[in-house]
């Protein structure tokens, strides 16, 4: 047993595997009763993220239950603003909140505190690599600068990221500076995760879909490329998945332009377009997370369409976005069996 048996790494090198390997975005989370139990004893959500013991436990929960081909580090993209002392809190039913950042505060950001602060997350990665089955790929991650900036500027999640879009037009220099700071910190953070034992990393640009063409190039592609280039300068072999949700047709050439090894696709990406993208790079996705609630035949049909259209090229099977708290744990088992060809 060795690293060569980690299927997701093979796909990231361009191999086609049949059946494709599978993991799910947000696979550790509230749809699992065992997660809800651990969450109760952990204190706040951030306490859970910074407890290497408990974060390791919740990362392993979906691996024990489903035998996914990858474990994804349990943490959150907003630990970076937390480390930048933006007063990040997560409350039940409200979601993440923090102090909205101003242009002056961007110029005054101090990055010195970031690494001691994030060390517990790197300890979790080390613990995970020591505990995980040898064949399971360990994924690290960070948020893309644009997506993290949308929360830092608004101070909370927004349906259309209007505050960040407005800020980017009004305060372009400060905004670009924020993206640079986030890109450089994220690159350091990903390199730390790779040093600690992550096999590959994913960059989540969950709110890429609200930008026009030029803004997508400047605020999504350029900062993600800056992260990829910085990581590769130190680790030329680093494997990187980039997920730009909602970017649609702007995903054309996204892998080449960012330098990512593979691209994540949300469920709105047509499979014909996905098949064209797959000629250039491995792809990951893209089942609608609602099918984890709808279940039954609609779920199987959705998965089969992806397997039929993308299964003959390098594919990592996944949802098109994170699994939701309402997902049915038994449906996840059925999906895994279906993708692996274990059902009639
Ligand atoms: C935008 C974003 C965030 N966090 C993340 C993103 C990018 C991916 C995406 O778009 O889904 C990424 C993330 N968040 C979490 C992970 C863990 C790893 C995994 O299992 O995938 C990952 C990779 C755990 C989490 N992150 C969060 C939870 C739920 C909080 C809880 O348990 O109380 C989990 C399991 C909290 C979180 N964190 C964030 C929000 C908006 C929320 C609130 C959501 C809600 O309340 O439904 C920011």
From TrEMBL:
It comes from Rhizobium oryziradicis. Substrate binds at residues 26-30, 76, 151, 206, 321. GO terms for biological process: protoporphyrinogen IX biosynthetic process from glutamate. InterPro entries: UROD/MetE-like_sf, Uroporphyrinogen_deCO2ase_HemE, Uroporphyrinogen_deCOase. It is found in: Cytoplasm. PANTHER family: METHYLTETRAHYDROFOLATE:HOMOCYSTEINE METHYLTRANSFERASE RELATED, UROPORPHYRINOGEN DECARBOXYLASE. Signal peptide: none annotated. NCBIfam families: hemE. Pathway: Porphyrin-containing compound metabolism; protoporphyrin-IX biosynthesis; coproporphyrinogen-III from 5-aminolevulinate: step 4/4. GO terms for cellular component: cytosol. Its EC number is 4.1.1.37. Belongs to the uroporphyrinogen decarboxylase family. GO terms for molecular function: uroporphyrinogen decarboxylase activity. It catalyses: uroporphyrinogen III + 4 H(+) = coproporphyrinogen III + 4 CO2. Homodimer. This is Uroporphyrinogen decarboxylase. Keywords: Cytoplasm, Decarboxylase, Lyase, Porphyrin biosynthesis. Pfam families: URO-D. Catalyzes the decarboxylation of four acetate groups of uroporphyrinogen-III to yield coproporphyrinogen-III. It is an enzyme of class 4 (lyase). Residues 21-30, 139-155 form the Uroporphyrinogen decarboxylase (URO-D) domain. It comes from the Bacteria. Transmembrane segments: none annotated. The record marks 76 as: Transition state stabilizer.
């Amino acid at each position: 047993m060795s690293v060569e048996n980690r299927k997701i790494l093979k796909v990231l090198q361009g191999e086609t595997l049949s059946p494709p390997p599978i993991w799910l975005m947000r696979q550790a989370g509230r749809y699992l009763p065992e997660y809800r139990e651990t969450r109760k004893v952990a204190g706040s959500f951030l306490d859970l993220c910074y407890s290497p013991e408990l974060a390791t436990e919740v990362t392993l929960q979906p691996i024990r239950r489903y035998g996914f081909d990858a474990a994804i580090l349990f943490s959150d993209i907003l630990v970076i603003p937390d480390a930048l002392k933006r007063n990040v809190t997560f409350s039940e039913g409200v979601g993440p909140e923090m102090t909205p950042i101003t242009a002056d505060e961007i110029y005054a950001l101090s990055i010195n505190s970031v690494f001691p602060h994030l060390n517990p997350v790197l300890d979790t990665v080390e613990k995970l690599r020591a505990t995980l089955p040898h064949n399971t790929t360990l994924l690290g991650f960070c948020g893309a600068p644009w997506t993290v900036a949308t929360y830092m500027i608004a101070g909370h999640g927004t349906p259309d990221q209007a505050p960040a879009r407005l800020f980017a037009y009004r305060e372009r220099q400060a905004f670009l500076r924020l993206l640079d700071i986030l890109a450089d910190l994220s690159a350091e953070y990903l390199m730390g995760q790779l040093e600690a034992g992550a096999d590959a990393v994913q960059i989540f640009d969950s709110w890429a879909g609200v930008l026009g063409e030029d803004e997508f190039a400047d605020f999504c592609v350029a900062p993600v490329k800056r992260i990829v280039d910085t990581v590769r300068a130190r680790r030329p072999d680093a494997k990187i998945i980039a997920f730009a949700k909602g970017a649609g047709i702007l995903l054309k050439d996204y892998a080449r332009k960012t330098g990512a090894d593979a691209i994540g696709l949300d469920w709105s990406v047509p499979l014909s377009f996905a098949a064209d993208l797959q000629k250039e790079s491995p792809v990951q996705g893209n089942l609608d997370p609602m099918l984890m609630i709808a279940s039954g035949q609609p779920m199987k049909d959705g998965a089969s369409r992806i397997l039929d259209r993308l299964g003959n090229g390098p594919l990592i099977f996944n949802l098109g976005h994170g699994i939701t708290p309402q997902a049915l744990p038994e449906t996840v088992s059925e999906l895994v069996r279906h993708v692996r060809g274990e059902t009639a």
